[in-house]
Amino acid sequence: MTPRQRVLSVYAGKKPDQVPLLLDLSHWYKANYKIAFDLTGFKGIDTKLVDLHKQLNAVSYVEMGGHFDLYFEDDAISDEAWTDSNGVFHRKISTPLGSIEEERVFSPISYSYNIREHLIKTVKDFEIIKYVMDRYKVRACWDRYQMWRDAMGELGVIYSMLPYSGLGYLISRNFGVENTCMAMFDAPEETKALIESVNKCNIRILDELIDGPFEVLIISDNFDSNVQNPKMFNEYSRAYYAEVAQRLHARSKYLAVHVDGEMNGCLSNFAQCGADCIDAATPAPMFTLSPAQARAQAGKDMILSGGIPANIFGPTATDEEFEDCVVQWLETRHDSFRLFMAAGDQVPPDASWDRIAKLPALVEKYGKY
Predict the structure, then answer these.
(1) Which of 165, 227, 316, 329 has the fewest Cβ atoms surrounding its Cβ within 10 A?
(2) 83 forms bridges with which residues in the sheet?
């Protein structure tokens, strides 16, 4: 089987010849090759990134740009982004109700842009966001999908994606954990109304995308059950995830959810909503669940994609610990073949190429059926 066939086989509920290997090398590549970040997304094919995946025979699936544009028909609204002469990234949204602005500053240590000022400062800004969400228009851009699909060939299972869910929009990205939690108590009606407005906008985006050429759609909420606890999930997110999954399944497409945090306590909830895959599934020692415990909570039918925590991929672990981590993850294939070998999120910048290059042989040795 080809790498692409293995991935699609698992999604279709059929056992492949071995566990598929998927990797998100985008962050590692930027940091180690000193490639400048473009926070507005990929604009074209990066041939070096393609070549790295080909060297590893690993499937590329995310971080290749979005497949839609958002725009306004109302000239009184604008959504602008730029980087100033000091290297600070700005995003400014202007509406008849007022303006809001975000600032992000590049950190050479993490090789990423940290948030210096959130886009939303107070609950009063919620009305601006709702005004914008209700007026976004959507335009599919499948040429971006197709160029990466053509470039990757049998190493490409290019996930389409939706923006953050309403709760993720606030808590993970634009308002922060503390501010969002306080707003739930101090302004519950306004908070729920904003979350619903974001989710409704995302459903309109999904309706525009759903008949496109992709097989898998991912929601990149950076979910963490320590932060988005079960009560929050049930009140703000469960119905939304279930609706997205139902609409995709009606078109014979699949839903992946990017967890990238503590998965203890959330796996069964996502399974109940109809999610087909948990992406960035990160076990101990970074989080609490062992691979076997993660499988037990997920059940046998949901795909677990991940397995290698950043603190094991990088220099803080020995080669023996790295190999043992990979083997433990692959051992769960005996409980369910709904399994992908991948990084727990992105391959970290401090991982050595030698360690990354060991993965194909390890999966071939320990991951066959």
Answers:
(1) 316
(2) 89
pLDDT of residue 216: 98
Domains in the chain, number = 1
User: Which tokens sit at 53?
Assistant: 């995946």
**Amino acid letter, 292:** A
Both tokens of residue 71? 């725009």
Neighbours of 157 (CB within 10 A): 23
Task: Quote the domain boundaries for residue 313.
Answer: 3-71+124-366
Q: What is the CATH number of the domain that holds 255?
A: 3.20.20.210
Residue type, 177: V
In a domain, 105, yes or no: no
DSSP class of residue 310 equals H
Rounded Cα–Cα distance for residues 169 and 184 (Å): 14
Asked whether the predicted pLDDT for residue 42 surpasses 80, the reply is no
Single-letter code of the amino acid located at 14: K
Residue type, 191: T
Cα angle: 133, vertex 139, 145; to 5 degrees: 120
Q: Which of 93, 102, 110 is nearest to 37 (CA)?
A: 110
Give CA–CA dist 342/81, Å, rounded: 32
The DSSP-derived string for 113-159 is EEEEE-S--SGGGHHHHHHHHTT-EEEE-HHHHHHHHHHHGGGB---
The tokens for 282 are: 């990160």
Q: Does 96 map to a domain?
A: no
Name every residue whose Cβ is closer than 8 Å to that of residue 342 and which is 6 or more positions away in sequence.
21, 22, 23, 24, 279, 280, 305, 306, 307, 308
Phi-psi region of 16 (alpha: psi -120 to 50; beta: other; left: phi over 0): beta
Q: Is the separation of the CB atoms in 171 and 228 below 8 Å?
A: yes
Answer for the pair 48, 36: CB distance below 8 angstroms, yes or no: no
pLDDT digits (tens, 9 = 90+) for 45-72: 999 999 999 999 999 999 998 999 999 9
pTM, 2 dp: 0.96
In a domain, 78, yes or no: no
Is residue 72 within 8 Å of 78, Cβ to Cβ?
yes
